[in-house]
Amino acid sequence: MDQPATLSSAARRNEDIALDLLKFIATTANVGRPGSASTGFTAPSGAKADDQVVHLLELYTRCLQAVEGKSGH
After folding, report:
1. Core-most of 14, 20, 22, 45, by most CB within 10 Å?
2. Does pTM top 0.85 for this prediction?
3. Cα 50 to Cα 15, 54, 73, distances in angstroms
């Protein structure tokens, strides 16, 4: 019965790591902050909040795949 808890803990740990990675990337690239842009990371003008949310969720998925060692292709 300890094994499912261990698997659950490992899955949660990967999610936490992916979330930390997402936060790091978003902060470094100024993603999700209206009106701010870093060199090489410019948001399209007129980008809607919904579009930014979609991009952040896609980025989180990619971060989780990277943490789990899965290819996104």
Report:
1. 22
2. no
3. 23, 6, 25
Number of domains the chain contains: 1
CB 53 within 8 A of CB 61: no
> Which residue segment(s) compose the domain that 19 sits in?
2-68
Exposure pattern of 12-32 as b/e (b: 16+ CB <10 Å)?
Answer: eebeeebeebbeebbeebbbb
3-class DSSP assignment, residue 41: strand
Rounded mean pLDDT, 18-26:
93
- The top-scoring range by mean pLDDT among 9-13, 29-33, 56-60 is 56-60
Q: Is position 73 within any domain? A: no
